[in-house]
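Recap for those who missed Tuesday's class. We walked through two folding examples back to back. For each one, the amino acid string is listed first and its predicted C-alpha cells come directly after. Nothing is annotated here on purpose, so try labeling regions yourself before you check the end of the notes.
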Amino acid sequence: MLHAVDALETGLSFYVDARKPLPEPSVRPDLLTVRPSVLEGVKLAIYREICCCDN
C-alpha cells in the first residue's frame, strides 16, 4: 500500500497522455480503497470536464 497512490496516479496519467476517457472507479467494500491525492483528483476532474474523448 506504500506506493499504491503513486501507482494509481501513474496509471491514470497514461489515460490522460493518450487522451482516453478515464475509467470509472470500482467499489469493493471488502478491499481497501486507494484514492488519488487531492491535487491529482482536481486535475482529473478538470480533465474529465474538458476532455474531447466522447468515444
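Example two. Treat it independently of the first, because the proteins are unrelated.
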Amino acid sequence: MSTSKASSAANAPENAHGRPFKASIGLKPRPAGGCHTRDAASPARAAHLCALPARARGRHALARPAAALALGLSLGLSLAGCGAPVPPPSESRVAPVRSSTGTGVGLAQVALASIDMADTVIGWAQSPAGRVLRTTDGTRTWTDVTPRAATAAAPSSVNGLAAFAGGSTAWYLDLTTYRVYGASDGGAAWAPLGAVQPRIPTDGGIVLDFADSRHGWIEVMSGVHHNRGEIFATSDDGRTWQAVYEGDVAGDLRFTDPDHGWLSTGAVLNRTEDGGRTWNPVALPGGAPSWVSLPTPFGTKLLLAAMREGAGGPRLLLFRSDRTGASWEEIFAQTVRETSTVALSVADERHAWVALADGSAGWRTEDGGSHWKRFSTPGTVAEMQGFQVVQLDFVSPDVGWMVAQERKSFAKALFFTDDGGASWMRVTPASRDSR
C-alpha cells in the first residue's frame, strides 16, 4: 500500500499504480527531502480499517534525522490514474517549463516535502514540518488534515509520519507516543489504533509501511548509520502490533505483500519471505552496487535502480524481476556524471520514469522496460537549473508531478507535467486552512 509510499504479492491488492503504501517525512526540517514511494491497496476505515478494494493505493513513510537524510534522497512512486480531469495548463506549451497554475486569491502558500496523488485531482502530501495535507483540485490548494489528537498538546508542533492509500484512507504514526491513527474519509476523522514500544533508540529514523489494508510494518532504526533495527508488524489494520525482528539489518523498508519485503541499507538490498522475521542479502547480476533502491511493483514485475562504480565512471543500472524478487535481470545501463541516488515512479505495467537525484538526467519507458528514452529534468531545462529531484509521482502515462529541492536554500518546489515529462509547469501550492 504505501511510498509512496509498495508491497504486494502477485495477486495482492495494490494501489492504482501497483505499489504498496509508503510516504515519507522527516522528524524535523532537514536539508534533503524524503519520498514515499510505496503503494498497495488500502480499504476504508471507520473504527478500524475495512477490506481494501483491489488496486487502491498508498505509501510508506520514512523519518530520518537531518544528518542521515543528507546522505541521499528517498524514492517516490506513483501509479496509474483514475480518469479524473487533468488540471489545465495556464497557457499553451511553448517551453519546457510553463507558468505557474497560481494560488487561490488570498490564500497563503504552503510548502510540500512529499506528495502521494491518488489520481489527477485527489492526493495527499506532508509538509516539511510533518503536517498531513490533502488536495482535491490537482495540487493547487491543500487542506491540513493532521490528526488533532496527535497535536493537542502542542498544536504548532508536529512529529509524525503518514502512509496513504487511495484518496480516502491514511495512517498516521505519532512519533511522540508511537500510537497509530487511521482515517477512511480523507482525514476528516481519525480513529486511535494500536501503539508500539521501541526497545532501541530511534535516532536513526523510523519507517511506516502498509502492504495492504490489514498488513503494515513500523521499523525503528538506531544510529546515524542505522547500526540496528527493530520491526513491528500488524495484521489487523494497525489495531495491534507485534515485534517481529531486532538485529543489525536496518534501512529503508518496503513490503510488496504480507510475506515479501525489502530493506535497503544503501549499498545492500535485503529480502524477507516471512513478513520481516528473517532477512537475507540479494545478489544482483554483475556484482555489488554502490547504491540500490527498493524494488517497485511494475505490473506483474518488480523494478529497481542501482548505481555501480566502473572503469568508465559510475553507471546507473535498472533491473527487473518477477514478484518474488528471487532473481533479477539487467534491462538498462547508462554511464552518468557522478554517483547519485534516483527518484523512481511507475504509472502502470508499461510506463515508468527514473531520474538522477542531482537532476542531471532522467529516462522513461513506454514498453515495460525494454526501451528507455530521455525526459526533461532540472539539468536539461534552463528554467529548472539549480534544483535537485526529490520525488517523481506519476498517475498516468502523461500526468505526473516532481518534487524538487533548490540546491542552496533547500527550499522545495512542485512541478507538474501532462505530457509524460517532456515539459513541466511550476505549481504554487496554497493552503486552504491551518490547524
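Answers for example two:
The first strand starts at residue 21 and ends at 22.
The radius of gyration is 19 Å.
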